[in-house]
Write a structure and sequence with these properties.
six-stranded mixed beta sheet, alpha/beta, three-stranded mixed beta sheet
Length: 252
């Protein structure tokens, strides 16, 4: 498989690294094709992969779509929805997904990052939507996912001004769930992954599906869905409760 996106598995985490550091990990059709293959493989591996991390090589997430290919993409339209389909595939992985953002996360890269369940940022990260600067418009879900995270007013500001926002600012506006100091980013990211993986992988997957399916439903409808379509206890629930009771008994 091409090295444009590198997959590394460790301790239940599958890390996908966008790997074009010489071009600030700019996205391209070839990058999406390799990412597509990785996502298919990871979706089938939910027994051995409990968490997915998406990041970029060389201290940058991604500067966005490769401008050298933009006109070709606009003109070709061979399969106009392909990139959207890949991003939806990322969003719909059974496992939780974390976008780990350092450096640039601009425009198309922001659309990609927004498909994750959690976004974590380094303090010096730079988030922006500059589609309007180039006369382009979002077609990969940004106009839906961005206001869902930050609210319509802030999304309007980002989209219409094309301003850049730091990781600290992204955290303050709820674009990023967490913001870590630059010099501790990898350590804090590893700690977050360990915290998530320590919980039941089955429960994490069920919770993710519940959040996706209930999104946009009225409270009563969502409650009914939770009650009558509940997927039941995790296979490791009894073991986890027993361990907790044993620890409490020992501590007492």
């Amino acid at each position: 498989m091409s090295s444009l996106v590198v997959r590394e598995d460790h301790g239940g985490v599958a890390t996908l690294t966008l790997n074009r550091p010489d071009k600030l990990n700019a996205l391209s059709k070839d990058v999406f094709e390799v990412l597509d293959e990785h996502l298919d493989a990871i979706a089938r591996a939910h027994r051995t992969v409990g968490l997915v991390v998406l990041r970029g090589a060389g201290g940058n997430f991604s500067a966005g779509y490769d401008m050298d290919e933009v006109l070709d993409y606009v003109k070709a339209r061979a399969k106009p929805h392909y990139h959207s389909e890949v991003i939806e595939k990322l969003a719909n992985l059974p496992q939780p997904v974390v976008s780990a953002v350092e450096g640039h996360c601009s425009t198309g890269a922001l659309e990609l990052a927004l498909a994750a369940d959690l976004i974590v940022a380094s303090e010096s990260a730079r988030f922006s939507d500059s589609y309007a600067r180039w006369g382009l418009t979002p077609i990969w879900g940004l106009s839906l996912r961005l206001p869902h995270r930050v609210g319509t007013a802030k999304a309007s500001e980002m989209m219409m001004t094309c301003r850049s926002y730091s990781g600290t600012e992204a955290h303050a506006m709820h674009l990023a769930n967490l913001c870590f100091p630059d010099d501790r980013f990898d350590q804090e990211l590893a700690a977050l992954c360990a915290e998530i993986l320590a919980n039941s992988w089955y429960a994490n997957e069920v919770n993710k599906r519940a959040l996706v399916v209930s999104d946009g439903l009225a409270l009563n409808d969502a409650h009914a869905l939770e009650i009558f379509k509940n997927e039941g206890l995790a296979p490791d629930a009894a073991e986890r409760v027993a361990r907790f009771l044993a620890r409490r008994k020992t501590a007492g």
